[in-house]
C-alpha cells in the first residue's frame, strides 16, 4: 500500500492534478504502475548521466578512432597523410599519447608495422630524446619505451642510452623506470662502453680478440749477424776474445795472458 502514494507524490512534485484515491482499484495494479514508472525514470536518468560524463568539444582518444588509425597506418600505400599528421603534433602531445591506454597502441603500431617507412620511426625516436626518463616513469609509457628499444637500431640505442645517463639514479629508484634501467645497463655503458656495445648491440671492438692474449716477449739481445767473408769471421773472433777478456777479473786475465805467452 505504500507504493500507492507514489502517484500522489509525483503529482505534487510536477504540479499535476492529484489522482483520486479510488478504493475500487486493486492495490496490486497501483503498485505495478508505480514500479514501472520508477524503473523508467531510473533508466532515463542513468542514460542522461552517461551522456553527460564526457563534455563536448574535447578531442580525446577513443577506441573506434584508434582502431581506424591503426588500420590506416598498416596500409602499404596511403598511410603517409596519417603519419605526417601524427608527427606534426608537438612532443608533449606525443608523450600524452604514449601515456594513454588507447592512443599508446597507435604508437606501438607505428613502431612495429613494416608498412611504416623507417624515417617516421626515426622521427619518433629522436622526438623522445631528452624525455625518455619521463616516458619510462609512467605505467603505460614504459611499455612504449620497451617497444622503442626493441625496434631501434644500434646507433639509436646508444643515443637513447646516453641521453638517460644523467637520470640513471632516478630511473633505478622509479617504480616503472627501474625495469628499463636494468635492461639498458647504464652503469656498464659509463664504465666500459666496448663491453656494453658487445652485450646490447652485438658490435665488438676491432682489437677485442687480442685483449685476452699474452703479449709476445721481446728479445733481450740482438742476434749476431753472420760474417760474409773469412776476414770478417777472424775479426769477429777477435772482438769476441777482447770482450770476453774484459769481462774476466784482473787476475784471470793475467793468468790467461801468461798462459798464451808460454805457449
Automatic annotation (TrEMBL):
Protein name, UniProt field: Nucleolar protein 9
Compositional bias of kind Basic residues: 205-227, 248-263
TM segment ranges: none
An individual GO BP term: ribosomal small subunit export from nucleus
Region described as Disordered: 17-60, 205-263
Keywords of this entry: Repeat
Superkingdom, natural source: Eukaryota
MF term (GO), any: RNA binding
One GO cellular component term noted in the UniProt record for this chain: 90S preribosome
InterPro entries, per the entry: ARM-like, ARM-type_fold, NOP9, Pumilio_RNA-bd_rpt
Amino acid at each position: 500500500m505504500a507504493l500507492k502514494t507514489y502517484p500522489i507524490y509525483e503529482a505534487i512534485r510536477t504540479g499535476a492534478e492529484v489522482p483520486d484515491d479510488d478504493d475500487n482499484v486493486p492495490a496490486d495494479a497501483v503498485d505495478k504502475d508505480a514500479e514501472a514508472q520508477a524503473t523508467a525514470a531510473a533508466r532515463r536518468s542513468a542514460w542522461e548521466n552517461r551522456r553527460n560524463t564526457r563534455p563536448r568539444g574535447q578531442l580525446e582518444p577513443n577506441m573506434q578512432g584508434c582502431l581506424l588509425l591503426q588500420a590506416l597506418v598498416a596500409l602499404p600505400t596511403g598511410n603517409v597523410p596519417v603519419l605526417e599528421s601524427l608527427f606534426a603534433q608537438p612532443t608533449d602531445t606525443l608523450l600524452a599519447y604514449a601515456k594513454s591506454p588507447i592512443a599508446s597502441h597507435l604508437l606501438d603500431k607505428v613502431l612495429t608495422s613494416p608498412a611504416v617507412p623507417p624515417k617516421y620511426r626515426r622521427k619518433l625516436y629522436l622526438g623522445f630524446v631528452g624525455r625518455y626518463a619521463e616516458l619510462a616513469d609512467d605505467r603505460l609509457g614504459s611499455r612504449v619505451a620497451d617497444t622503442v628499444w626493441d625496434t631501434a637500431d644500434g646507433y639509436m640505442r646508444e643515443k637513447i642510452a646516453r641521453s638517460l645517463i644523467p637520470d640513471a639514479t632516478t630511473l633505478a629508484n622509479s617504480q616503472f623506470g627501474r625495469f628499463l634501467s636494468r635492461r639498458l645497463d647504464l652503469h656498464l655503458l659509463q664504465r666500459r662502453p666496448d663491453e656494453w656495445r658487445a652485450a646490447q648491440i652485438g658490435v665488438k671492438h676491432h682489437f677485442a680478440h687480442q685483449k685476452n692474449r699474452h703479449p709476445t716477449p721481446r728479445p733481450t739481445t740482438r742476434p749476431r749477424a753472420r760474417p760474409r767473408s773469412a776476414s770478417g769471421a777472424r775479426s769477429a773472433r777477435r772482438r769476441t776474445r777482447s770482450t770476453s777478456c774484459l769481462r774476466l777479473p784482473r787476475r784471470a786475465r793475467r793468468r790467461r795472458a801468461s798462459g798464451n805467452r808460454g805457449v
